[in-house]
């Protein structure tokens, strides 16, 4: 006996959910592109709506107010897609967590970090600039700083567990060092302004972090 087809109401509900998600993605893509091109202050909800091909009210219902749009766009740029899987639970992060050699940990982290900052550097600058004049964005900026610090501490913990961290540094000082180098502004300057390639940047990160943390 063949399976019973889904009820019409269930089918329609699924279609509506797909349409809502497509609208949300269009709004977020438009917002991300405009923020990167015009900055936070230079991007209006009306401009986002026009670029996404939706009404002003739909922007709010589909994705939220302007500060939330910036936060969501930043988060998606950080992890590279809109899947709700934290960065620490991604396969590349889990692979790094399974390593027990300091040099391998640094190489894996440099590869992950280079890809992250390449995706997020433009919006990072938008957040940094807008944080001076907008309290909601200032809160986002502070949260980004905490995330960078937490990420640095996780890498240090791996190095400590592997017995690889240089005796010159305490774990907190090592986290300080990583927090300097996980600043997306470095990518913006070296790749965006100085014309380094992605590979140049990734390999420089690996060499520099190896020197600072292992030797």
From TrEMBL:
InterPro entries, per database record: Homeodomain-like_sf, HTH-type_TetR-like_transc_reg, HTH_TetR, Tet_transcr_reg_TetR-rel_C_sf
Assigned keywords, A-Z: DNA-binding, Transcription, Transcription regulation
Gene3D superfamilies: Homeodomain-like, Tetracycline Repressor, domain 2
DNA-binding region as annotated in the record: 44-63
A single GO molecular function term of this UniProt record: DNA-binding transcription factor activity
Domain of life per record: Bacteria
Cell membrane as UniProt keyword: no
Domain HTH tetR-type: 21-81
Keyword Transcription regulation on entry: yes
Signal peptide: none
PANTHER family: HTH-TYPE TRANSCRIPTIONAL REGULATOR BETI (PTHR30055:SF234), HTH-TYPE TRANSCRIPTIONAL REGULATOR RUTR (PTHR30055)
Protein name listed in UniProt: TetR family transcriptional regulator
Species of origin: Actinoallomurus bryophytorum
């Amino acid at each position: 006996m063949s399976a019973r087809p889904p009820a019409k109401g269930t089918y329609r509900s699924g279609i509506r959910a797909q349409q809502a998600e497509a609208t949300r993605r269009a709004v977020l893509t438009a917002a991300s592109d405009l923020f990167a091109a015009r900055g936070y202050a230079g991007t209006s909800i009306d401009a986002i709506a026009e670029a996404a091909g939706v009404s002003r009210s739909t922007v709010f219902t589909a994705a939220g107010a302007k500060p939330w749009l910036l936060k969501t766009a930043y988060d998606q740029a950080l992890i590279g897609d809109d899947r709700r899987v934290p960065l620490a639970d991604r396969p590349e992060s889990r692979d790094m967590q399974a390593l027990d050699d300091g040099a391998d940990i640094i190489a894996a982290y440099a590869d992950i970090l280079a890809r992250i900052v390449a995706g997020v550097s433009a919006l990072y600058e938008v957040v940094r600039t807008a944080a001076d004049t907008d309290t909601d964005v200032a809160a986002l900026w502070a949260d980004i700083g905490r995330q960078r610090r937490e990420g640095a501490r996780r890498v240090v913990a791996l190095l400590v567990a592997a017995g690889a961290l240089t005796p010159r540094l305490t774990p907190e000082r090592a986290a300080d060092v990583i927090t300097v180098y996980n600043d997306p502004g470095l990518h913006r300057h070296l790749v965006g302004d100085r014309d380094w390639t992605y590979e140049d940047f990734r390999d420089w990160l690996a060499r520099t972090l190896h020197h600072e943390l292992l030797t």
